TrEMBL record:
The record marks H139 as: Important for catalytic activity. NAD(+) binds at G8, A9, G10, V11, M12, G13, D31, E91, K96, S118, N142, K273. It comes from the Bacteria. This is 3-hydroxybutyryl-CoA dehydrogenase. Residues 185-281 form the 3-hydroxyacyl-CoA dehydrogenase C-terminal domain. Pathway: Lipid metabolism; butanoate metabolism. Keywords: NAD, Oxidoreductase. The lineage of its organism: Bacteria, Bacillati, Cyanobacteriota, Cyanophyceae, Oscillatoriophycideae. Pfam families: 3HCDH, 3HCDH_N. GO terms for molecular function: NAD+ binding; oxidoreductase activity, acting on the CH-OH group of donors, NAD or NADP as acceptor. It comes from Aerosakkonema funiforme FACHB-1375. InterPro entries: 3-OHacyl-CoA_DH (IPR022694), 3-OHacyl-CoA_DH_NAD-bd (IPR006176), 3HC_DH_C (IPR006108), 6-PGluconate_DH-like_C_sf (IPR008927), 6PGD_dom2 (IPR013328), NAD(P)-bd_dom_sf (IPR036291). Residues 4-182 form the 3-hydroxyacyl-CoA dehydrogenase NAD binding domain. Belongs to the 3-hydroxyacyl-CoA dehydrogenase family. GO terms for biological process: fatty acid metabolic process.
Length: 282
């Protein structure tokens, strides 16, 4: 596998594209906005430079060589060359439905589609394509280049051949995967989103400050980050979209989004990417 399409140049798309380029793949990074694409290019350039500062040994490729492996485009037609496509768009069904209709018509018949989604069922995504057996979920963790494990999701129609192809690509990226069955939120986000949402309720109810909530999880349970720090890293808008999908999917009140979470998203306090969430970032 040499040519991989990456749809969506947000936080996750940037991480996936960078990881692929660093492992020798030619990447087609697609987004509807030239402004977003230019920002993505600069972010990847900065990430590669910072990584160079911290690596003790000389990297195999120079940052400019890695960056040259990524083609930045707002034209979906370039995906006609893609052997594998990883989709990273916003966690809204209407957007994903439109994207999969487009790429299904453009990409080669044998191309595999992987949805890097937090909560939307893979079987539902596959249903809008004519290749349901070639669609799976590949839930990457942030920051993508530094996380060695991926949660892979088998949809109702996903073939074993597709799973094997995905495992092969992930191995080329220096990653392993745990394959789980399709259900809203899968394993990681079905548990994580509940934890984060409840931590926001705790903050809303003034039981403890954000710092105290996170410190309890880090010092009592040995977590590297607390739930509110994790929310800022993921993006509060993404957290809200994900918990809303779970609420809609299960019709269970335990997934009711915290009013504070909704308020912060409305106010544009999306976490690290906006400079302000539960914490302030420079």
């Amino acid at each position: 596998m040499q040519v991989v399409g990456v749809v969506g140049a947000g936080v996750m798309g940037v991480g996936v594209a960078q990881n692929l380029a660093q492992t020798g793949h030619h990447v087609l990074l697609i987004d509807v906005s030239e402004v977003i694409l230019e920002r993505a290019k600069q972010e990847i350039k900065n990430n590669l430079r910072f990584q160079g500062f911290f690596k003790k040994s000389e990297p195999a490729d120079r940052p400019d060589e890695i960056l040259n492996r990524i083609k930045f485009s707002s034209d979906y037609q370039v995906l006609k060359e893609a052997e594998f496509v990883i989709e990273n768009t916003t966690e809204k069904w209407e957007i994903k439905q439109d994207v999969y209709g487009k790429i299904d018509a453009i990409c080669p018949k044998n191309s595999v589609f992987a949805a890097n989604t937090s909560a939307i069922p893979i079987t539902r995504i596959a249903s809008v394509t004519k290749r349901a057996d070639k669609v799976l979920g590949m839930h990457f963790m942030n920051p993508v280049p530094m996380k060695p494990m991926v949660e892979a999701i088998r949809g109702y129609h996903t073939s074993e051949e597709t799973i094997a192809t995905a495992k092969k690509l992930l191995a080329q990226m220096g990653k392993e995967c745990i394959v789980v069955n399709d259900a809203p939120g899968f394993v990681s986000n079905r548990v994580l989103m509940l934890t984060i949402n409840e931590a926001i309720f705790v903050l809303q109810d003034r039981v403890a400050s954000a710092e105290e909530v996170d410190r309890i999880f880090k010092t009592c349970f040995g977590h590297k980050m607390g739930p509110l720090e994790t929310a800022d890293l993921i993006g509060l808008d993404t957290i809200l979209y994900s918990i809303e999908v779970l609420y809609e999917s299960f019709n269970d009140s335990k997934y009711r989004p915290s009013p504070l979470l909704k308020k912060m998203v409305d106010a544009g306090l999306h976490g690290r990417k906006s400079g302000q969430g539960f914490y302030t970032y420079n």
